[in-house]
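Render this sequence as a predicted structure.
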Amino acid sequence: MDVDTIFISINATDHTAQTDWWTKFLGRPFDRIPVPSCREWDLREGVLFQVLDNSSDRTRVVVSLRVENLDANIERLRAAGVPISDPKPVEGFATLRFVSVQDPEGNTIGLLDGA
């Protein structure tokens, strides 16, 4: 799997409070608002941290990897017996698609393609 970007995302029940806390913790304001429900910091090249306004998702932290050729990776993982969701478009982005998989401990790992 060829990964070019790592996303670390926290789902917030109080988006404003979480954004304020992470601004203090990281010592600087967020770098961008890619969609209204997301505040995003560049931690280093290819590593992004996000606070998401998503109180409906009980998963608190999600690690997502942007990969080359999402469809080929889905096919490879399914052939290896790894249960993986069907790709879904990401709201607010014309070409971004997302799939999720859970590791043996139940942690969610997301795979993305597009921009």
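Summary. The chain has a mean pLDDT of 88. Residues 15-26 form the longest helix (12 residues).
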